[in-house]
Amino acid sequence: MTADHSAPGRLPEPPTRPTLTREYLAAAALALIDTHGLRKFSMRKLGTAVGFDPMAAYRYYTDQEALFDGVAEALFTEIDVDTLPWGGPWQQLARDYCLRLRDTLLRHPRAVQIFATRPVRSPASIDTGVKMLTKLRDAGIPPAQALRLFRCLREFTIGHALAIAMTTLGADQRSRKPEPGSPDYNLLAEAADATIPGDHFEAGLTAILHGFEPRLLNT
To answer: Are 134 and 189 part of one and the same domain?
Structure first.
C-alpha cells in the first residue's frame, strides 16, 4: 500500500484508461470536499469535475453514502499502515497508528466528518485490524480486550481530530473567551491562553495506553 501525499484539494491524475475507477472517483471526491466543503459537494458536481457524464459516478457507487464510504477508505489508505512499526512493542504500534490517523484527518479537515460517521470496511482496514489484534494477543491481551482498546483509541483520535478540524475551519472565531485584563478574565480563560489546540492529544493517548497495559488488566 502506498500513501497518497498529494496536496489536499488537488484532483488526482485521471486514469490512463478511458474509464473511471472507484478509487479515482473516491480520490476526486475527497479533493472536491477538501476544496469546497461537504455541504457544497454532490455526485453531479463530481461527475462534472472529472470530465465525465455528471451521473457517471452512479455506475460505480449506488448513492452518495456509498461514495463517502469510498472516501473514508481513501483516507485510511493515506495512513500507509504497511510502514507502521509492526515489529516493535504493541504500545509503539498503537501510538504511531493514532498519530498517523490524527495527522491524516487534519490534512483533510472538511472530510473528518465523513470518516467519523462510518466504519471503514475495506479489505486493507480489516486486515489491519486482524494484524493489530494478533499483535496484542501475542503480548498477552485477549482479543476482546484488545478490541476495546482500539475502539477507545479510534474514538479518542477521531473525536480529537474533529474538534481540531472545527477550530481550523473557524469555530474559534465564535469563541467568547474574555481577553486578558477584562473584568471577566478568569482562571479558565487564563489556562486556555496557556495552551494551544491539540497539545493534549499525546497526554490523553498515553493515559489510554497505560490503562490497557497487560499488568493492569486484572486489577
So the answer is: yes
Q: Is 178 left (phi over 0), alpha (psi -120 to 50) or beta?
A: beta
Return the closest-CA partner of residue 1 out of 89, 93, 75: 75
**Residue closest to 154 by CA, chosen among 66, 68, 79:** 79
Give how far the C-alpha of residue 176 lies from the chain's centroid of Cα atoms, to the nearest Å. Answer: 28
Global pTM? 0.83
* Domain, as residue range, for 45: 1-78
**Whether 112 and 206 share a structural domain:** yes
With beta carbons less than 8 A apart as the criterion, state whether 24 and 52 touch.
Answer: no
Residue 207 shares a structural domain with residue 157: yes
pLDDT tens track for 150-198? 999 999 999 999 999 988 787 656 667 788 888 888 888 888 888 888 8
Q: Across the chain, what does the average pLDDT equal?
A: 88
Rg (CA), the chain: 20
CB 12 within 8 A of CB 30: no
Q: pLDDT (tens digit, 9 = 90+) per residue, 105-124?
A: 999 999 999 999 999 999 99
162 and 85 in a common domain: yes
What cell does 46 get?
463530481
